[in-house]
Amino acid sequence: MKILLVVYHSMTGGTAQMVQAAAAGAATETSLQVRVLRAPDAGADDLLAADGYIFATPENLAAISGVMKHFFDRTYYQVLEQINGKPYAAMICAGSDGHNAARQIERIATGWRLKSIAPPLIICTHAQTKAEILRPKQIDAAHLEECKNLGATIAAGLAMGIF
Prior knowledge:
Elements: E1 2-8, H1 14-26, E2 32-38, H2 44-49, E3 52-60, E4 63-64, H3 66-79, E5 87-94, H4 99-111, E6 115-116, E7 121-124, H5 130-134, H6 141-160
Parallel strand pairs: 1-2, 1-3, 3-5, 5-6, 5-7
Antiparallel strand pairs: 3-4
């Protein structure tokens, strides 16, 4: 059975909601196992065992979160040249634009020689004040549907051997 690994970090719940939606979309593919791990709990063995990936992070100070960066730092060289060609997608819960965080994931994925299956999905909460940034997030239904569709797309591609 193929495995889709979803690795994420969430501080105020927005990214977690996006991940839950993507995992629900991926779970519609019954010939696939979906593993959802928080970044501190995911390691090189998880990456090596998976056939595809979704990486999800909040945008923090125009970058991926430090927790997500630490995941990549801990695993990067352990899996280098062992996961080449595997498909991935990225999801960013952004306060402003999220593009730099998406570029960071793309650069890491390029180093791992992963294959992007879609443009990064950036959901912008427009949180710009301290209170807005720190408050729990609520992602609207339309954006959650985009996350669900992304999960379903990568799962179907893995199951059919397209990716």
